[in-house]
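Re: weekly structure request thread

Next one in the queue (321 aa):
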Amino acid sequence: MYFRMKIKRKNQSHMMKRRDFIIKSAGAGIAAGAALSLGGYKKLMANAPENQSYDLVAVMGGKPEAMFDLGIQELGGMGKFVSKGQKVLVKPNIGWDRTPEYAACTNPALVKRIIEHCFRAGAKEVYVFDHTVDNWVNCYRNSGIEKAAKDAGAKVVPGNTENYYQEVSIPGAKILKKAKVHQVLLETDVFINVPVLKNHDATHMTCALKNMMGVVWDRAYWHRNNLHQCIADYAMYGKKPVLHVIDCYNVMTKHGPQGVSKEDVANLASQIITTDWVAGDAAAAKMIKLDPLKVDYIKIAHDMGIGNMNLDSLNIRRIKI
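Done, posted below.
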């Protein structure tokens, strides 16, 4: 247990009502998800819908790996996003020198499972990186993500010097007209965004849209020049993620983005998978009792046509394991 049972019960009770809008039981017959052995994976794929029409899949109640197995199945399988021979970038949040129980970084087990699915779908190479805030070597190691990624066969690359970044233009942006973007993003065919949901002192929360601050070099410019608008502006850039897998397994509910104590963390055992990062962030906000309208960059991105924050208008698949 990451914290005393009394505190865990309090945190879960505090979160439950608001998260129920997005995480509801889909029926008692849902299995906990097959292990990603070759046989289990084939079984999942055989049952995948041929013509999925879901805007968002929300899963609750399992381990990160099992929830992803079920969620990606509902969107048609990883083969819908990754083709044979492609190079894939999987971009988690690895920004902080924290071990997994602090929930400052993306859950390493989820990162590993996504990479495994990419290779099963035929990916030639899978890369993992982040422009960390703390020392990158310590972040990669202590988050558990470096080992998890390498164990799954991915290549882990650094993002700690400006030499790795190339300047790009962002048509349609209001403030962030250009940015220096990591070369691995520019050189890969498929981009998968894997943020962790958590509290943030400057923006109330960080999730899919804000996770892009880890692919650019000069984040200080964003903070000096209307952070919320810059977050939305970057989402206008043409090399967008094809999939957003939001880690809501352990969620930092205060003192974010770095965290102070394990008691800041609530185990929500949830995951959101979507192709619409505005919808994903809006759903994630609700899970931590935030009105999406109060998170400025979500509303700005919606108004700019980047995605849809009106969850009632979306086709959402809800699964409870």
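The first helix runs from residue 5 to 19. The CA atoms of residues 115 and 191 lie 12 Å apart.
Next request, please.
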